[in-house]
Every structure is written in C-alpha cells, then in structure tokens.
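tmp note - Recombinase-like helix-turn-helix domain-containing protein
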Amino acid sequence: MPTDRYLDPHQARTRTPTPYEDLLGDAIERAFAAGIHDLAGLVEHLNRSHTTTPSGVAWTEENYRAEMAVLGA
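out:
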C-alpha cells in the first residue's frame, strides 16, 4: 500500500515531545473525546484528572492560555 507523500502528521514538529507534553496532550485528547470543547470544561477536566502545570499547580484558564502560548512557540 503506497503512502501519501504529502501527509505528515508531525510536519510542524521541530523536536520530539517531552514526557510532560505527551501526558498533557493525552489528557487534552481524552477531554475532547469526552465531548469537552470549551476552555472552562477543559481546565476542569485537567484538574479532575490530576494533570498539573509544569510547576505542579492546578490549571486555571489563565495559566492554560500561557502554557499553550509557550508550547506553541
């Protein structure tokens, strides 16, 4: 079966994700799979699942936005 040479799901990746980034991504994917699509619900899901910020504190909408800006840079 030929591969699609134009499909690269990691085309914007400049490095391998850290274990923290992998865990955070998995938690976000689980939230989306559960039908959570708003920021308040996502933050609540992360806290309920004991997924903390890199510094170990609970998520807020403000620190989530800040962390996504850092990770997206």
